[in-house]
Amino acid sequence: MTNSQQLKPETGADSFFATDIRVGRVLSVEEFPEARKPAYKIKVDFGPAGVLQTSAQVTNYPAEDLKDRLVVGVINLGRKRIAGFTSEFLILGSYDAEGAVHLLSPEPQASPGDIVG
User: Fold this and answer.
1) Is there a domain that residue 4 lies in?
2) How far is Cα 35 from Cα 81, in angstroms, rounded to an integer?
């Protein structure tokens, strides 16, 4: 097992259920040249939870392929400043053996704001 595949320590269900994970629809994608690693600035509509922005290292996707896509995000981790930009949520994906991100995708009938649990 490589380091990226090693299991993390066991945690209680309370930690998991404290996260607010929701479906969102990508509204816009902009280049983020100020970031240390290649990234986009992404705005996502989470329905009743509002529109939030994030910095995401998902440049293996063309920006036009991300627009209008349904994504999954954790929206209650707090804000983080990245190269002068405020990131408000964490977009979820998996990493392959080469380190490329593959975004998690809900079923097409999901709607912005739907709770993931």
Assistant:
1) no
2) 11
